[in-house]
């Protein structure tokens, strides 16, 4: 597989997992998932994880997967190689896994004494990959095996932190996010 082809497939396949975090930033607010509860002296998740942000994040990821699925044939023909169409379960694994990974990361941040918005290098950039890929494999293994080859997974692991840092920096500059990470 050519390198460029692998990068395009990795990016396309991960888009439904990339978009939920950004949608949550735009749509967040309202009731926190943990309802203000604490565990030990710290919040379970914190005010940065809300029902509305999570619901809108998953919805945005599913909607994008549906749009990409409609476009896949045309884009594939134009590029000269196939790009993924998303099965409903694959889309759910990507979008739901991304939000779940982000929530688990906040849980870990609170347990390690980090305040809301504190940086946790590594975890901040890869939390959603670590949860969404296994979840996709669990929900639709055939789809996972077809698209997430070893090469694609390697590109995802390298590309995701770069994209994450870039988009968060843009969101910070635009005043949408309080911190650049
Ligand atoms: N957000 C949300 N619900 C989510 C994820 C994010 O409402 N499930 C919104 C919140 O307004 C949050 C913002 O998006 O403040 C930025 O997300 P993130 O950086 O993940 O949260 P932080 O506020 O930095 O909190 P944490 O330290 O827990 O990551
Ligand atoms: Mg944050």
Tally of contiguous helical segments? 6
Helix fraction by DSSP (H/I, runs of at least 4)? 55-70%
Describe the largest sheet. 2 strands, antiparallel
Shape: elongated
Distinct small molecules bound, one entry per kind = cytidine-5'-triphosphate, magnesium ion
- Say how many strands there are: 2
Question: Order of strands across the widest beta sheet?
Answer: 1-2
How far from one another are the termini? Answer: 33 Å
The percentage of residues in β strands lies in under 5%
- What number of domains? 1
Classification by helices and strands: mainly alpha
Extract low-pLDDT stretches: none
Rg estimate, integer Å: 17 Å
- Listing every helix as H and every strand as E from the N terminus to the C terminus, the arrangement reads HEEHHHHH
Mean pLDDT: 96
Describe the 3D structure.
- This protein is 70% helix and 2% strand.
- The protein has 181 residues and is mainly α.
- The protein has one domain (3-173).
- A two-stranded antiparallel ribbon has the order 1-2.
- The structure holds cytidine-5'-triphosphate and magnesium ion.
- Residues 117, 179 line the site of magnesium ion.
- Pfam families: CarS-like.
- It is a multi-pass membrane protein.
- The chain crosses the membrane at residues 58-83, 89-108, 147-171.
